[in-house]
Amino acid sequence: MEKVALYLLLTILLLTGVLLISFLISSFFENEKKAIKRSFVILSIWCVVFIVLFFIPNSFYLWLLIVSMAVFVLVMVKFGNQEINFKVPDQKFDERDVIFSRNALQKGTQNYHSYYDKNPDKKLLDDKFRKEPGLLSKGSYFYNELMFSAADATFQTVNLLQPLVDNNPSKLKSELPDSEIAEFITNWAKKLGACDVGFTTIKPHHLYSHIGRGEDYGKKVELDHEFAIVFTVEMNHNSMQYNPQGPVIMESAQQYLNAGQIAVQIASFLCNLGYDARAHIDANYRLICPTVAMDAGLGVIGRMGLLITPKYGPRVRIGVVSTNLNLQEMKKVPDYSVIHFCNICKKCAENCPSKSISYSSQKASAINDRWNIKHEKCYTYWCKAGTDCGRCMAVCPYSHPNNFPHNLIRWMLKRNPVNRLIALKLDNFFYGRKPKSYPLKNLMNSN
């Protein structure tokens, strides 16, 4: 019996060693110096334990095996995650209230005076960010002429897509089955660079009540489409580690462009087949992308107010195409373990430079069962920094690269609350409670 226990223990130790080595290798490729050092120390201790086992009396193996198996069962067992009932807003959100729409208001114009006459409380808040240099502006904390000019050029390219978001459908309608077209779109979108693709019916609360940007400012949103195609594109993990410096807004702009290109292509494709379709891209939305994406089963909106996806966490941008193509809605049960983890983690709140993210464990607000961030404080910091920060994205434990060690942790997170607590402690241990951003000089030297 003692020999069987020894062999089982050695097997468990070998598997553990493989996991440690894979984590060490992934940390090396991720350039996570703290994780490399600590995983190397643990791997060294593991080697010592492996050797010492051969000198321990045989009677000890059985007890050690029992403890090991108990830990293994605890990790594997799945407790039912308590369902969270997100309240459906009974009123549509006005895009004119979005911070980007308010920033676009030009002083002295009719829209400016009309908006702030109705919302004097918001003017007091908005005057604070207007005093700062602004996004991509000289004089901001992290101004870098080359990087900011590159990001600005990318946003300018996004603007070139604006006339293409809405086209007239062909008079000759395709006779192909809707399901075949939907399958083609899913595969094609991924070939174009999308990570995940989902479909959902468009609900009233998905839509803005009024348009907040562009020539149609102030008009009611009218969208007759019944279905939405939703997809995500990944934001590069390495770029986000330079938060809140120039590489972040360069990456952000690039993924807005990539999402916009894919959305415009899909919308044009549907119009070619005789279906009505509209691409929803940066600065030209008629609906609220994270809410639509959540209902399409692509993730759950977490503490920081962003969509937390299964593979990349909040490190994504979202693209949406609305259409009258009859799509089969993807019925997916939301991963409520994300909300439970957000409840105990609070890492994004602790690392937020502007203190815009709530520490509260309460998931309810006056509008719905989600955390609300302080948008004015967040955007004021952006205007000081000159970038869109990305600190909350970068430190989120769900944002680690999509590889074996991290996917194993993500799988564990779904199992039970004990695993979530352990995973949080491990994340703090290997990466730090307040991870340091990469210094920009490292990027300069690598080039």
Can you walk me through this structure?
There is one protein chain. The radius of gyration is 25 Å and the shape is globular. The longest helix is centred in the first third of the chain and has 28 residues, at 2-29. It contains 18 helices and 6 strands. With 447 residues, the protein is an alpha+beta fold. The termini are far apart. Mean pLDDT is 91; it is low at 364-368. Helix 1 (2-29) crosses helix 3 and helix 6 (120-130) runs parallel beside helix 14 (375-385). Helix content is 50%, strand content 6%. The chain has a 4-stranded antiparallel sheet with strand order 1-2-6-3, sandwiched between helices. Strands 4-5 form a two-stranded antiparallel ribbon.
Descriptive labels:
two-stranded antiparallel ribbon; four-stranded antiparallel beta sheet; globular; alpha+beta; 18 helices; 50% helix; 447 residues
How many DSSP H or I helices? 18
The best one-word shape is globular
The chain-level structural class is: alpha+beta
Low-confidence stretches: 364-368
Q: Please write the string of helix (H) and strand (E) elements.
A: HHHHHHHHEEHHEHEEEHHHHHHH
Total number of beta strands: 6
**Distance between termini?**
60 Å
Largest sheet: 4 strands, antiparallel
Strand content: 5-15%
Q: What integer value in Å does the Rg equal? A: 25 Å
Strand order of the largest sheet: 1-2-6-3
Helicity range:
40-55%
Average residue pLDDT? 91
